[in-house]
Amino acid sequence: MAFNVKSSKREQITVLEPESLPFKYLYLRNIDIPVRDGAILKGHLWIPKDAWEGDLKVGTLVEYIPYRTDVTIQRDSIRHPYYAGNGLASLRIDMRGSASSDGVLTDEYLKLEQDDALDAFDYIVKQKWSNGKIGMFGKSWGGFNGLQVAARRHPALKAVISLMSTDDRYSDDVHYRGGCVFASNMLWWGSTMAAYAPRPQDPRVVGDSWKENWKQRIEVAPMVKHWLEHQTRDEYWKHGSICEDYNQVDIPVMLIGGWKDGYTTPVFRMVDKLPHPQSCGIVGPWVHEYPEMATPGPKIGYQQLSLKWFKKWLHDEGEIELPRMTAYMQDPVGIEDSYDYRNGHWVSTNDVKFKKGMELSLGANNELVVAAPAEINYSFSGVESHGLFRGTWCPFGYPGDFPSDQKSEDARCLCFDTEELTESLELLGEPKLTVTLSSDKKLANLSARLVDLYPGKENVLLSWGQLNLTHHKSHEHPEYLQVGEKYTIELNLDVVGVKIEKGHKLRLALSSVDWPQAWPSPETPTLTLTGGKLWLPQVDEAAVVQSPDFGTPSIVRKIKTQVDKPDSRTKTITYDCTTYEWIIKDIADDGEVTLPEFNELSGIYNGACNVNTWKIKENDPLSAYNECQYDYWMGRKEDNWNVRMDTRATMTSDKDNFYLHNKIVAYDNDEIFVEKEWTDTIKRVYN
């Protein structure tokens, strides 16, 4: 069964006053948490007053991320107090190398990161207020390491909520996609961390030693270098990928994803593979955000849901049993309107194999038909301008994030269309494309898009996928293609949950180029397609069960900030007719905010501006160019503490190598403190 959700352009969020919550709580900042090598992590604890001062013992929630609480405090203030005000301790830990914790941050998801978490658990269970049970929650990085730490099987960790995360660091993250260098995201994220990771400790917390530690943080080699040095799925990527052994995560896990997020396919994979019978998945229409705050709507009562989840597993209070998978079936909507709200309905099932579907064959006259696969013969290549209108892979819902009308993209592809649908169609699951093809080059990529053709209106992107064809057997052990040899290739597209209206058509669009999603092959190949079929997953009504009522969203009133400079976003795609060059320029100015009155954080400010540029010349794959500038500043003016980090990263290639250049200039009160550059040549490996 399913329940419908009616459109509400102005969704209401219930704002709770802290004093209205059942438990009075304390907020304690910069608690020292020792770890095994003597380093100190800083924790920030919201805890029921009776637990801190009396004999009440409570379960503890842990959010463990590198983004520093003096920056995320607004986000923290709507969530952690809710848990403390309802009888749990909620501990936000600044990872090693972030905020005022000791050390430096050298890379993502290190074993040391997990070890520190286990040591923090040991610290927690020794506290007089702890009942010995811990839960982890987090989005993105915090969702990743929640799963990874769970696989280390600390006896106190009883449950996890992992939002917008993955089980496979190679196949489903910002570095590689289908074995292709993920050009739209790898350098961008590398430049982001090049500005985030060196942010200094707070002198009010650690004293004069902050400056020496800041220098150490600045001089750490850029993370993007490590990522590009590992172009196949080797041990570097296997570490931290729980898909290597799902059985290690044998506690209940709630997985949350969004149809507009980049990490949704892993939710479907994990609900099938995770061993605990009460692990479950929820996928809404959302971008990369917590679902009580996310767009497009509808939002849900995530905080109430998560509280019930953790109360059950940490306090043995109440009951909560959720279907193995609950997904929001989206109704069609225009691209502009899709930023705000998606009409639709929730569908739940305990059968997560998603075996029901329809098979369409690639036929003559560019048709997608319900028929047995037939021999066909199409030769197609790609143009470097295909992919420019794909939108942001992991968006937060800012203007320009979502894919544009795909007509111009389709014009650059080999396309296969269905006839107009005679009845509506509900798709739920992972589309799978199987093709037989050959290549005239030993290196080749294949891109596939599934598009909904709205009659007389927009061509709306539903799903896409890409594959480095040298990886068609294995991401760990690629093989060069033999020119002219026929291969049977399987390519999975991103999961979908959408209703296709009667009268619409579906389109499959194929290309050997997808910039800037995939860094181009050194030579643009021509592929010859001799057969193919597309499997589309459908809702199995026989397996549908009653969906939960997720309720309405509520948050604790967030602390106030002073907006010194508003944020803004511009994104343009241009073509220079004199140089035959296409340019994407994406400028995200985060503005600047100050915390006017909030404990020792009073007066702290931060701001950022991120400028990303992708360039490529028509018919010249070796002209691909990516530049990312990330400027970040913070401080406390009343203490004369004002720091700034300006970073710049570029990536280019020739037929044999990638070329990375990274630079950071750090300023202390407008004077250069440290200036550091890295220039790296990295061999192309099956790319």
From TrEMBL:
Residues 307-556 form the Xaa-Pro dipeptidyl-peptidase C-terminal domain. Pfam families: Peptidase_S15, PepX_C. The keyword Hydrolase applies. This is Xaa-Pro dipeptidyl-peptidase C-terminal domain-containing protein. SUPFAM superfamilies: alpha/beta-Hydrolases, Galactose-binding domain-like. Keywords: Hydrolase. NCBIfam families: CocE_NonD (TIGR00976). It comes from the Eukaryota. GO terms for molecular function: dipeptidyl-peptidase activity.
